[in-house]
Amino acid sequence: LKAKCLARKPEDDNSKYLKTLPGVRVVEGDVTDAVSVRRAMDGCTKCIACFGAARIVKLSDFWRNGEAECAHPKSVNYRGVLNLIEAAKDTPDFEKFIRVTGLSVGYSPYHPVAVLLNTVLSMTIKWQLAGEMAIRASGLNYTTVRP
After folding, report:
1. What pTM value is reported for the model?
2. pLDDT per residue over 63-86, tens digit each?
3. Pairing between strand 96-100 and 46-49?
4. What burial class does residue 17 get, using C-beta atoms within 10 Å of its C-beta: 0-12 exposed, 13-18 middle, 19+ buried?
């Protein structure tokens, strides 16, 4: 086994493709679920976290807290990263944490692109940055990629 891939839907086309690759095992789970993250990380020495929330702001967000939803960027891009960090710290011989976010994460919060994406995508850049900062503070050996 060379790689494990955590997938919410192990029967979708992407997961089916990954299953055809030599040495790859698809593990059902979600980064927002600490138990499935720990199960997926068991025995791993490295983690490449290349996920992100794609939640559009809802009108109801103006009168209730949408951050509690599993699909919200706070749950995925921040709490999901925290789940991975904790699992990595508890995994013997863990070596490297790689987080792929996005170029806009490095923009000033007042940059027009950041304002637009945060407004439309439920503060996604804010929570991506919070996840990156948690990785930096974790003490793990890490690399952040912002394509």
Report:
1. 0.91
2. 888 788 888 999 999 999 999 999
3. parallel
4. exposed
Cα separation, 62 vs 47, in Å, equals 36
Q: Which two tokens stand for residue 132?
A: 């990156």
Helix, strand and coil percent figures for the chain, each rounded to 5 = 45, 15, 40
User: Which residues touch 69 (CB under 8 Å, ≥6 apart)?
Assistant: 55, 75
Task: Tell me if 129 sits within 8 A of 62, measured CB to CB.
Answer: no
Tell me the average pLDDT across 117-140: 94
Rg of the chain's alpha carbons, rounded to an integer?
16
For residue range 43-58, what is the model confidence (pLDDT) as tens digits? 999 999 999 998 888 8
Label the pairing between strands 46-49 and 24-28.
Answer: unpaired
User: What torsion do the CA atoms of 136, 114, 110, 77 make, to the nearest 10 degrees?
Assistant: -30
What whole-number distance in Å separates Cα of residue 84 and Cα of residue 123? 21
3-state class of 110 per DSSP? coil
